[in-house]
Design a protein that fits this description.
Structural class: alpha+beta
InterPro entries: HTH_HxlR (IPR002577), WH-like_DNA-bd_sf (IPR036388), WH_DNA-bd_sf (IPR036390)
Distance between the termini: 38 Å
Low-confidence stretches: 300-305
Radius of gyration: 19 Å
Largest sheet: 2 strands, antiparallel
Number of strands: 10
Mean pLDDT: 90
Bound molecules: zinc ion
Keywords: DNA-binding, Transcription, Transcription regulation
Pfam family, one: HxlR
Shape: globular
Protein name: Helix-turn-helix transcriptional regulator
Number of helices: 12
Length: 305
Amino acid sequence: MITRLDAGGPNAIAVSNGIVGDEWTLWIVELALTEGLSKYNEWLNAGPISTAVLTTRLNRLVEADILRRTAGQYLLTKRGRQMWPILLSMWAWEQRWVDAANLPEMRHGKCGRIFSPLLACEACDEVTAARDVLGKFGPSGGWERSIPTGVTRRRAHSGNRPTELITQTMALIGNRWSTALVGAAFLGATRFGEFEQRMGAPPTIVADRLRTFCDIGVLVATPNPQRADWVMYHLTDKGRAFFPVVATVIEWGHRWFQAPEGPALRLTHTKCGRAFHPRLQCGECGERLRGASVQVERSRRSVAT
Ligand SMILES: [Zn+2]
Ligand SMILES: [Zn+2]
């Protein structure tokens, strides 16, 4: 069971990203959260998932204590229920920056409006952007310990994927090297050598991922004014807007998969000077969001066949 981490081993970032960087895992959790699915056959009938994939994912979720198996049902644990801010942040980013067509709309039960979530600081209540948060490795930090655990998973092939596509989210965090690149970019890497060193990946992989990230538009490559042969890579608005996903995954990871030495990463909100813990609020009424007050609406969509 991945409930307790070992000293010197993979840290909270590694374990949480190993879990959320898999489309089918997220799809299973999402349907448990939003539709209340709890039986094997309910998931099997809900989408193009094979029995083999469903069985391995359910077992992994039980091992990670996200689902608990009882009397023929798989029920979300508290750890599993608390994954909703991650899913909400992914949907919001895809809706704003990629394609809303296949994603549900979210209604805030309290104000009754369709909303997008905003990231705020738990300590001072201010809406917070990526550039206002400073990240430094904590006692269990370091690049090597933060590389997502688990097998390197291949992306699901078209025709055999969850119907609610979060394709670009998966391009960013769906495998260990990409996730490491996202982390390196948010922690200030701009040059090829910095990415290479932080990711611990062969240059061909680093080059390939940087190209993909530029193609998707989360990074932009610009010549370095000091060194003509050095290109610099910076996060674009779209790239920085991915920060709520990063922040909610790290928060969830620290809450449930803390290494014995302490946190993997310490985030500081530069505007209030305090430790940054993410909180989602309704973009319409400004109220703090709670899992129970978010209604997922799927009826609007026409399901592509
Ligand atoms: Zn603050
Ligand atoms: Zn609201």
